[in-house]
């Protein structure tokens, strides 16, 4: 398996092959058009990664609560899903004593700590849900970043890139070479390392 990169982008055919791996209970609606994708990005204030955009252009997986329906989904639920990575960190700041080592010293009061954490978290990269609590970096200028499984600060790498993720979640996992380096994602990679 060749990792996705600028030199090896995900093609529409590759995306179709990934979608074909999904269980039959997943409905795959027609792919999103460029204007539809642009509208989603404008509405929600992020930009899809190139491979995520290609996947959604090839077909829009829907069904159940696991797949974000970027075309017809409930706006409140989409907003909640987009907020989950940050809200999860804030939950752990408030209830589990989490404090990132690169932040200033933690204030003594919980509410003060939350206010400081919100300031830092406003600057971290946006993670966009793909399926359930699996997320991909929202950055139109980067490709081949890992898919992270994100539940509060329990964050693990679920695939070295979108293709690897689909194989792990829906197909037959392809072994990752031991010397493979995951692409770093500012702030979020701290939890994986």
How would you describe this structure to a colleague?
With 193 residues, the chain is α+β, with helices and mostly antiparallel strands. It has one domain: SMI1/KNR4-like (3-Layer(aba) Sandwich), CATH 3.40.1580. It has seven helices and six strands, in the order H-E-H-H-E-H-H-E-E-E-E-H-H. Strand 5 and strand 6 form a beta hairpin. The mean pLDDT is 93.
How many beta strands in the DSSP annotation? Answer: 6
Using the alpha-carbon principal axes, give the shape.
globular
| Helical coverage, percent range | 25-40%
Give the strand line-up of the largest sheet: 3-4-5-6
Based on secondary structure, the structural category is alpha+beta
Q: What's the order of the H and E elements? A: HEHHEHHEEEEHH
Number of helices: 7
At CATH level 2, the architecture is 3-Layer(aba) Sandwich
Strand content: 5-15%
Sheet with most strands = 4 strands, antiparallel
Beginning-to-end CA distance, first to last residue: 23 Å
Q: Can you tell me the CATH topology? A: SMI1/KNR4-like
Low-pLDDT parts are none
């Amino acid at each position: 398996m060749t990792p996705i990169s600028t030199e090896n982008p995900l093609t529409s055919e590759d995306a179709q092959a990934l979608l074909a791996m999904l269980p039959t209970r997943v409905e795959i609606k027609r792919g999103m058009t460029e204007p539809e994708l642009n509208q989603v990005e404008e509405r929600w204030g992020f930009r899809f990664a190139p491979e995520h955009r290609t996947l959604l252009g090839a077909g829009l997986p829907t069904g159940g609560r696991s797949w974000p329906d970027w075309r017809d989904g409930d706006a409140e639920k989409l907003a909640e899903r987009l907020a989950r990575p940050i809200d999860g960190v804030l939950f752990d700041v408030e209830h589990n004593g989490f404090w990132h080592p690169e932040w200033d010293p933690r204030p003594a009061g919980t509410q003060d700590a939350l206010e400081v954490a919100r300031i830092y978290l406003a600057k971290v990269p946006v993670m966009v849900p793909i399926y359930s609590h699996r997320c991909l970096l929202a950055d139109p200028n980067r490709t081949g970043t890992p898919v992270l499984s994100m539940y509060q600060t329990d964050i693990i790498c679920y695939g070295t890139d979108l293709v690897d993720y689909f194989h792990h979640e829906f197909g037959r996992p392809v072994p990752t070479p031991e010397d493979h380096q995951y692409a770093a994602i500012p702030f979020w990679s701290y939890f994986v390392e």
